[in-house]
Automatic annotation (TrEMBL):
Source organism: Chlorobium limicola
An individual GO BP term: negative regulation of DNA-templated transcription
Gene3D superfamilies reported in the protein's UniProt record: Metal-sensitive repressor, helix protomer (1.20.58.1000)
The protein, known as: Transcriptional regulator
Source superkingdom: Bacteria
Record CDD domains: CsoR-like_DUF156
One of the record's GO molecular function terms: DNA binding
Matches recorded under InterPro entries: Metal_Tscrpt_repr (IPR003735), Metal_Tscrpt_repr_sf (IPR038390)
Protein family: Belongs to the FrmR/RcnR family.
Alphabetical list of Pfam families matching this protein: Trns_repr_metal
Length: 76
């Protein structure tokens, strides 16, 4: 999970940069690009965690947790 923590720290850095850009009133195009980058990085990290969680539950034949994960996903 160290790679996930590293990814999340990078996302946090992107969000902090985004806050600074908005405070400085940088151009809209730069702000939108930064939003997209942060969003993509967070979505990639989410997919990685979801994939690992499902694989782990399935390898242990843990249908209860798989069901919970699927229920959480469907609430999005």
């Amino acid at each position: 999970m160290e790679d996930v923590i590293l990814r999340l720290k990078k996302v946090a850095g992107q969000v902090e940069a985004l806050v600074r850009m908005i405070e400085r009133e940088d151009g809209c195009d730069k702000i939108i690009i930064q939003f997209q980058a942060a969003k993509a990085a967070l979505e990639k990290t989410y997919s990685l965690v979801l994939d690992r969680s499902l694989k782990e539950c399935m390898s242990h034949n843990d249908t209860e947790n798989v069901g919970r994960i699927l229920k959480l996903i469907s609430k999005q």
